[in-house]
Amino acid sequence: MNNERLYQVLVSPHVSEKATMDAELNNRHTFRVAIDANKLEVKHAIETLFSVKVEDVRIQKVKGKVKRHGQALGRRNDWKKASIKLSEGHDIDMNAFEAK
Predict the structure, then answer these.
(1) pLDDT for 40-85, tens place per residue?
(2) Of the candidates 81, 83, 37, which has an alpha carbon nearest to the alpha carbon of residue 61?
(3) What pLDDT digit, counting tens, does each position of 7-48 carry?
(4) 1-5 contacts, C-beta under 8 A, 24 or more apart
(5) DSSP code at position 50
(6) Rounded Cα gap, residues 54 and 38, in angstroms
(7) 4 φψ region: left (φ > 0), alpha (ψ -120 to 50), beta (else)
(8) Using an 8 Å Cβ cutoff, are 35 and 78 in contact?
(9) For residues 40 and 66, is the Cβ–Cβ distance under 8 A?
(10) What predicted TM-score, i.e. pTM, was given to this entire model?
């Protein structure tokens, strides 16, 4: 995989209360990833960009919410999130991650 694709696979870290607790307790970090990314691409991107050892990758496709603006109905885009479990002794510094 080329370096350009590495930066396209990871979109941003997904910050929520559940994701933060999971990172602290289980060493599992959550990222928004490209809609066409697969587990191998995500694993390779995390290992290369953060110099850590990835133990497990789980991917989930999140459906966009239906929103209203007056009488008009609209829908947000679908997106994909990846939950990455790191090996013992490895950690990701989220302050170093810079989303595009």
Answers:
(1) 999 999 999 999 999 999 999 999 999 999 999 999 999 999 999 9
(2) 81
(3) 899 999 999 999 999 999 999 999 999 999 999 999 999 999
(4) 1/41, 1/44, 1/45, 5/41, 5/45
(5) H
(6) 14
(7) alpha
(8) yes
(9) no
(10) 0.84
Q: Which residues contact 82 (CB under 8 A, 6 or more apart)?
A: 30, 31, 33, 37, 39, 42, 57, 58, 59, 60
Tokens 């979109």 label which residue?
11
Three-state DSSP class for residue 57: strand
Residues 6+ apart with CB under 8 A from 67: 73, 74, 75, 76
Q: How many CB atoms lie within 10 A of CB 46?
A: 24
Which tokens go with 53? 């050892």
- Residue 50 has which token pair? 């953060």
CB-based burial of residue 17 (10 Å sphere; 0-12 exposed, 13-18 middle, 19+ buried)? exposed
